[in-house]
Design goal:
It is built from 3 helices and 13 strands; from the N terminus they run E-H-E-E-E-E-H-E-E-E-E-E-E-E-E-H. It has helices at about 10-15, 50-60, 170-180, and strands at about 1-5, 20-25, 30-35, 35-40, 40-50, 65-75, 75-80, 90-95, 100-110, 125-130, 140-145, 150, 155-165. It is globular. About 30% of the residues are buried.
């Protein structure tokens, strides 16, 4: 569901090289939890400046769908979902968004672990599989076909995120390396 990768850290002078040009934004949706409907938090992706994208191509890979600066805000959670535009996400947090923020993975009761893109099930239909507390300035590879949420957000959570499809060999190579090192 998520693995930590030993990849080169983004140089501090490049981390903030983002634009305000919005590339994607989720409209908050209603979710049912413990008998109450709640709004999901906002999620926004903005383009990164060419210098940061070039660094990524030179130091990580040039085989991906998109790279963006992302932020979560507005609520204490980014409710359960699968990603809209990608199957795997490489994430590098630049602001944790709080002291006890957790990324949680779920399986929808009675369904396969992988769900369709842009899927938003209610909490009440989910079984929690595992949760992780991610570290700042560390690369993680997330299988975004598995229903996941981010819980405990206190302040704006920021990250550099890179999207991959099932066809991207870089992801398969990294997963193979990880499995080989177990």
């Amino acid at each position: 569901m998520i693995i930590q990768l030993d990849l080169e850290k983004i140089p501090p002078e490049l981390v903030e090289l983002t634009t305000t040009t919005e590339a994607f934004r989720n409209t908050p949706w209603l979710v049912h939890k413990d008998g109450v409907y709640k709004h999901s938090g906002d999620y926004q992706r903005c383009e990164v400046k060419p210098e940061l994208e070039q660094w990524f191509k030179d130091n990580i890979t040039n085989n991906y769908l998109h790279i963006s600066a992302c932020r979560m805000f507005g609520e204490t959670h980014n409710a359960p979902h699968t990603d809209t535009t990608r199957d795997y996400t490489l994430i590098y947090l630049t602001d944790l968004g709080g002291t006890d923020v957790k990324t949680r993975f779920y399986q929808e009761i009675g369904h396969d672990i992988h769900r369709p893109r842009d899927y938003h099930p209610d909490y009440d239909n989910l079984e929690l599989l595992v949760e992780y507390k991610l570290d700042l300035h560390t690369w993680y590879l997330l299988d975004s076909r598995v229903v996941h949420s981010v819980e405990g957000i206190e302040t704006e959570r920021k990250a550099i995120q890179v999207g991959f499809g099932l066809e991207h060999s870089w992801v398969h190579n990294k997963l193979g390396e990880y499995i080989g090192n177990l």
